[in-house]
Amino acid sequence: MKNSMRLLAVPTLALGALALSGGSAMAADASYSSTLGQLNGTTGTGTITVDVTGDKAMVNLQVSGLAQTFMDGPYPHVQHIHGGALGQCPTPAKDANGDGIVSVTEAADLYGDIQTTLTTSGATTPAEGLNLELGGQGGTYSVQREITLDAATKASLESGTAVVVVHGLDPATAGVSTEVFSSPSDLNPDLPLGATSPALCGTLVATQMGAMPEGGADTGVSQESGSTNAGVIALGGGLVLAAAAGGAYMVRRSATKA
Fold first, then answer.
1. Are 194 and 171 in contact (CB under 8 A)?
2. How many angstroms separate the CA atoms of 237 and 185, rounded?
3. Is 150 helix (H, G, I), strand (E, B) or coil?
4. CA distance 50 to 59
5. Exposure of 138 by Cβ count < 10 A (0-12 exposed, 13-18 middle, 19+ buried)?
6. Pick from 104, 78, 76: nearest CA to 90
């Protein structure tokens, strides 16, 4: 009887080892993270981890301390993974026109076009960056969900050139006049420049599985390069906020002036 039990124990242990091995095989292929640095006078903070398995990725984005309201409603911050460029975040030196704000197009040659839109729902394509209802709502929020990675985004992650950008400045901390903040956006002239400009930015770097993001505001920024025509389409049209929202903003401005 004892011998029989011993014989049974061997395959049982072997099966257990196989089960553990199978569990390891199901683990993520790679993990990336970033602590998002502050741009354009932002006082908020953000961290992100992206665990990739095949063409799937578990995203955990945590943002806090950004502008809270826009047009008497929750501020519709939108965020994306950019790529196809240098994999860097801008410094104030990228403010080419000297207005005090580094705009989307001024920084585009560093972090590239939208490759994946990060939202709280199932949307991921660059075009879905248009949808304010899918963006982060208010000044503190999280995006925790599984997304499907296209080949371009995965290639940017693997090459270290994937950059997360969160948009939407706070007029109270942007450090520019109301006139500059409210000047026409480089993406949609019906909207204020400050509402579409980058607020947080960080390059996604490979990390140990489950490790928390490390690093600071200068993530990925080590050199500058001249602007390119690609900058004009930096967001692939993805951050053009809804025209209706722009109209409401203009009405509010007019009422305020009155």
1. yes
2. 12
3. coil
4. 5
5. middle
6. 104
Mean pLDDT, rounded, of the chain: 76
- pTM of the predicted model, to two decimals? 0.73
pLDDT digits (tens, 9 = 90+) for 127-147: 676 566 777 889 999 999 999
- Spatial separation of the C-alpha atoms in residues 157 and 164, rounded to whole Å: 11
Residue 148 is which amino acid? T
Question: ∠ CA 227-242-180 to the nearest 5 degrees?
Answer: 50
Alpha carbon of 253 to those of 3, 247, 257: distances in Å?
A: 87, 10, 6
Cα dihedral: 173, 177, 178, 179 (round 10)? -150
What string of DSSP letters covers 58-124?
Answer: EEEEEEESS--EETTEE-EE-EEEEESS------GGG-TT-SS---HHHHHHHH-EEEEEE-SSS--
Q: What DSSP string describes 165-216?
A: EEE---TTTS-S-HHHHTSBPSS-TTSBHHHHSEEEEEE-EEE-TTPPP---
Q: Within a 13 Å sphere around the CA of 145, how many CA atoms are in the beta-carbon half?
A: 14
Q: Are 68 and 62 a contacting pair, CB within 8 Å? A: no
CA gap 75, 66 in Å, rounded = 9
Q: How many other CB atoms are found less than 10 A from the CB of residue 223?
A: 8
